[in-house]
Write a structure and sequence with these properties.
The protein has 427 residues and is an alpha+beta fold. Helix content is 16%, strand content 43%. It starts with 6 loop residues before the first helix and ends with a strand. It is a peripheral membrane protein.
Length: 427
Amino acid sequence: MAEIDHFMPLLMQHEEEGLLCPVISHGNVHFMWIKHSNLYRILILSVVLNITLLMSVVSIVQVFTEYFKELEEESIQDNFVVVYELLDELMDFGFPQTTDSKILQEYITQEGAKLEVAKTKVPTTVTNAVSWRSEGIKYKKNEVFIDVIESINVLVNANGSVMSSDIVGSIKLKTMLSGMPELRLGLNDRVLFALTGRDKGKTVVMEDVKFHQCVRLSRFENDRTISFIPPDGESELMSYRINTHVKPLIWIESIIEKFSHSRVEIMVKAKGQFKKQSVANNVEVRVPVPSDADSPKFKTSTGNAKYVPEKNLVVWTIKSFPGGKEFLMRAHFGLPSVENDELEGKPPITVKFEIPYFTVSGIQVRYMKIIEKSGYQALPWVRYITQSGGTLVFICFILIIIYKLVIIWTAIDVKSESQLTFFFFFF
């Protein structure tokens, strides 16, 4: 129990040395940690085990957020008994057991009176062959919503050439179906089309495919059919990766000029490189500025720009950005007369936007068959969402695309002034 006292000093030491790692060793003890907001979730190990398995176990934020809405220090303190019960069920004798929040909610509740009763009653779902779904589920209207969510990663050099690009995607379900239905999902999978001799039309090659436990893996390996009995409510059916060429959909050019440490002027031009029929909504360009800048002045060809001093940013927002259009933003800041050389690297320019009814990878849901012994009719709905890594923007029946642009500035002496050139990196 005393080993945890060594964690924070070791972590601070590693941060100072620039050697941060998700596993930190101290003698014969290993700390495996993940940070969420202001909390550290730590596993203390005396032997080196399967790190990827332990990472999935320690990533239990979703379970806690289902109970407390927000995972903060106060929510853990106020719900300590529930947290203790959850951890007891998530790990049984050192082995991961029930990690589905919906199953846990059947017998671990926030009402103390129900907690005492729940200790003597374990839901049959945990011991069933289909442990991820309860029996006797009924809905007046049977529906299933399919979300194809993709994260785009693109690296572009200074010449505007794409150096590397890939798409990391997932297919998520929101199932509202009665009984124990069997679902069969068909995608425009190139391997499937090749097996059936129908290698026609636009297909995709998925790599690093990972499925939810409900998917019958043997069936997929034999004929590439995705067959499963879905969990009730929301779940992630599968994740995958696609290696494909992706062009930057919004191109950014910027010029930053400093004048004798008295003022700085920034010019940013944004150009939509997608079809004219499409429109990017809620475009937001975040431009970093020096920490000692003051007296901001802006001029934009469209949209609004504002200065956010606590983050040292200029935020340029454009509600509607048609394809093929160009817009310009100019910013002027005063700088103190005393020279202030910042040693840290320049932060990135970030751009995010949403494009309805638009797809990049070309992945398509060809069909969704729903089979249930009662024979009811069910409605499947499909929506596509594309985003840059990490941030999920969820809009009904809208495809969403988010790009991040990183600018690395290099100072070049130009007579009495210093101009900054830039390199673009898209993530």
